[in-house]
Structures are given as C-alpha cells and as structure tokens.
Amino acid sequence: MTAQVDQDVRLSTALNHSATHLLHAALRQVLGAHVAQKGSLVDSQRLRFDFAHFEAVTADQLQKIEVLVNEQIRLNTEIATEVCALDEAKKKGAMALFGEKYGDHVRVLTMGGGFSVELCGGTHANRTGDIGLFRITAESGIASGVRRIEAVTGAAAFEYMAQAQKKLSQAAQMLKTAPDTVVEKLDALLAQNRQLEKELSAAKSKLAAASIEEWLQEAEEVKGVRLLIKQIDGNDAKLLRDLVDKLRDKLGNSAVLLAGTDGERVSLVAGVSKNATAVVKAGDMVRIVAEKIGAKGGGRPDMAQGGGQDNGKLPDALAALRESIRNS
C-alpha cells in the first residue's frame, strides 16, 4: 500500500495554520505585547487559538483583529520561510513558543513583510492571499487568564458569511423590514415591549391591591402574630415584594408569605415585622417551603425570597409551613 496525502485537506489545513500566525500578530497589536500563545488546534475545517489575556475580548476589539488579519490577506504578500541559527532568528524578532525546545537551527516563517515572524515547522500557504477570507466565529474564556478564539478561513468563511446573511434576511422578513434596518426595528419593538411590560405590571399591581382587603381576612393569630400564608397567580418577584410589604403594614405584628405561581414556576416572598421575628423568621419560612418543592431560597429574618420549579407539592408545602409555625 502507498500512503497518499489528500491535497484538498492539506491545503485547507495550511490556510488555517497560516491564519493562526496572522491572528497571533493581530492579537498582540490590538490587545498588547503580553499576548502569548497557550495552545492551538488547526484542521481543514477551522482553527482555534488559545492565548494569555486577562479579560474578555470586546466586540470592538474582535472587529479590529479581524480587520487586521483580512488586510494582510488582501495584501497577498509572500509567506517566506528560511532556516537559520536560533540566535539569528531571535534577532529578527521571531516569536517562539514558551516551553518549546528548539535546536541550534530553526525554521522562521515571515508573513506580511514582518507583520508576523514566528518559529514554525508546519505546513503553510504560499501567499497570504491564498487564505481568501478570515472570520472569527467565537471568543471565550477557558481558564484563568486564558482566552480562546475560534475562526474559519477560505470557503468555510464564505459559507459562514452566507449563513449569517441568510439568517439576517429571515429576521428582516419576520420583522417586516429591510436587512439594513433590522437593528432600528428591533430597538423600536424592544422599547414598545418595555412600555407594555410597565403597563402590565401596573395593571397587575392594581388588581392585586384590590384583593388585599380580602386576603387580610384570611390571616390567623398564632402566638400573638398575625400569620398569612397564601398562593396567588403570577410570579413577578417585585410585585410579590410590594404585596408582602403592604400586607405586613396592614396586619401590624405579622408574618406573611406569598407563593406566586405561573405555569411551572414558583416565586416565594416572605416578610416578617420586626417584633414578630422572635416567633418566626422570614428566611425560615421560605426555606421550609422551598425544600419541600425542590426550590431554593433564603434571606434575612424580616425579608426573604426564593423560587424554582413547581413539583406539584406547593399546597402541601404551604400547609406544612402553617403547622410548623403553629407547633414551634
């Protein structure tokens, strides 16, 4: 059998490899000389580059990095290689990987007339223009002080752009606007949505406030404390806090817990007046209910909240809380 190299795969890999060198140089220009390679992955489909940096790379910085790399691609300069002594390579400003062991003679790869000068023994394109196009697809943190950039080049980069354009066109159709006005249309819709949310919240507050007088009648006297534990519709935490405050003020020396439900979600808010915390604490009220329905919560003796998924045991949990306070 004779081993044979897939030339298409090799070429695509070479393009991605050359792009990592341009990316490394661009990162150092935009982010600073502290940037150093911490790892990389190059194959025929994509490239991945890990580097030292102390914070997330901003969208503006990513754009600048992408512009720098694509400028070098458009210049279409020759990718030059030479073998020279290690000391001579260092004098040329060649970047070396920390921790790597090099022999007396090394292979120096120069791109963009000095834009990137690195020690490298891998396969590369002949000219920067061979890369065609460079697009960053993701940026993330992978460890303390280490960031990762993922990108595509050549045909994969054009396909990435085509898919992005397709999604933009679909979004424009859904918004009934042109692709170049999608952002403005979204801004308008989001502003409208915020206004509607305010109006809905105000309506809920008025509706709930109208029910407060009825709820007051459900409070029971336990050890000198007026206790009200109730399940209501809606799990808006802010609204629940407002209702608990109003109920607590009207009841006087009291302990109140409201469990707001909306579908499968439950929000718990408890408030206890200062003199009543010797009998029951808000944090304990929320904790007892939360534990029984598989939720989480806690807080101060006078105010606490929590929530999670409703596992169908909320009525039993509220009943158990009443009994716990009565028998404590």
How would you characterize the overall build of this protein?
Helix 5 packs parallel to helix 6 and helix 7 (282-293) runs antiparallel to helix 8. The longest helix has 35 residues, at 182-216. It contains eight helices and 13 strands. The chain has two domains: 7-159, Threonyl-trna Synthetase, Chain A, domain 2 (Threonyl-tRNA Synthetase, Chain A, domain 2, 2-Layer Sandwich); 211-327, Diaminopimelate Epimerase, Chain A, domain 1 (Roll), CATH 3.10.310.40. The strands form three sheets. It has a six-stranded mixed β-sheet with strand order 8-9-10-11-13-12. The model has no long low-confidence stretch (mean pLDDT 88). The protein has 328 residues and is an alpha+beta fold. It has helices at 7-31, 59-75, 86-91, 154-175, 182-216, 237-251, 282-293, 314-327; strands spanning 37-42, 47-52, 80-85, 105-111, 116-119, 134-143, 146-153, 220-222, 225-233, 254-262, 265-272, 296-299, 303-309.
Could you write a compact summary of the structure shown?
The chain is of the alpha+beta class. The chain is built from 8 helices and 13 strands.
Strand neighbour order, sheet with most strands: 8-9-10-11-13-12
The overall strand count is 13
Name the CATH homologous superfamily of the largest domain: Threonyl-trna Synthetase, Chain A, domain 2
Number of helices: 8
Sketch the topology as an H/E string, one letter per element: HEEHEHEEEEHHEEHEEHEEH
> How many strands, which pairing sense, and closed or not: the largest β-sheet?
6 strands, mixed
At CATH level 2, the architecture of the largest domain is 2-Layer Sandwich
Q: Which spans of ≥5 residues are poorly predicted at pLDDT below 50?
A: none
Give the integer mean of the pLDDT values.
88
CATH fold call of the largest domain: Threonyl-tRNA Synthetase, Chain A, domain 2
